[in-house]
Amino acid sequence: MDNGTTVTEFILLGFGVGQQERFLLLIFFAILYVVTLAENLTIIILVVLDTHLSRLPMYILLSNFSLLEICYVSTTVPRLILDLTSPQGVISFTDCFLQFYLLFSLGTSEDLFLSAMALDRYLAICQPLRYPQIMSPDFCFALVIACWGLGFMAYIIPVTMISKLSFCGTNVIDHFLCDAGTILSLACPPLGVTPFVCQIFLNAFLLSNILFVVLSYGTVIVTLMKPSFKGSRRKAFSTISFHLIVVTLFYGSVAGIYICPEGENQAEVTKAVTLFYTSITPFLNPMIYCLRNDQVKDALGRLRRRKV
């Protein structure tokens, strides 16, 4: 290759378990993947078919978030299932970088959608009179486009810079997927400013979104504690509590990557945490958002009556 790379494929070690455990994991992830797709597709179909939900900004954002979760889980789990059927876990150089780009782009889009939903709740609760004008259909549409567009533009530079490094040594990745850290660990020196640039991009998007979400929900909670919200406080708290659970699950698991203990078990901890936010949270999020959600239950009832 023109960039001096001699490695043409990588080997993903995966979980390093026996044949019986591999089979059980394969069944588990296959069921998890199918159920996750079904859950998120149900939300999308409900929002698209229900004329009431399709006009509400929160559910427009939620349906796009569900589409994002489908893409996010499809970036990792099918490949994981495929590798569990074969002990080799070989992935081509191009496929590895494609997975890395999609994983980080979709992750950044998820950050942005969580911020967009936090903004929606802030405007709905703290600025109720101005909410219809600010959160207009045009603004909501622009917000959706921005979340998808910025997410997929964010990591073009880091992925391009890493792909131009030389990989002339080992091609074994002690992980079940390709990400920035595992790929950079195999690159031959000098690495130049590439690791620094990648860290800057990651921190800039992650920390800015965390700060925005914390400030938004913090302001919402302070507003709800005022005496004027006494009557509607319980319902509003019930709504944002589910949002906060989703935010905590995602950012908590991502933060776990940064606080992994150093040592020989670090790789296993990293795998477990990565598995949680790439596979388990997309499965849990639809249930958390729609659990005890009266509007979703009403939409399901209307859809059933239409079919009858």
UniProtKB/TrEMBL annotation:
All residue ranges annotated as the G-protein coupled receptors family 1 profile domain in the record: 39-289
InterPro entries hit by this protein: GPCR_Rhodpsn, GPCR_Rhodpsn_7TM, Olfact_rcpt, Olfactory_GPCR1
Record PROSITE patterns: G_PROTEIN_RECEP_F1_2 (PS50262)
Pfam families for this protein: 7tm_4
Localization per Swiss-Prot or TrEMBL: Cell membrane
Membrane topology qualifier: Multi-pass membrane protein
Entry protein name: Olfactory receptor 11G2-like
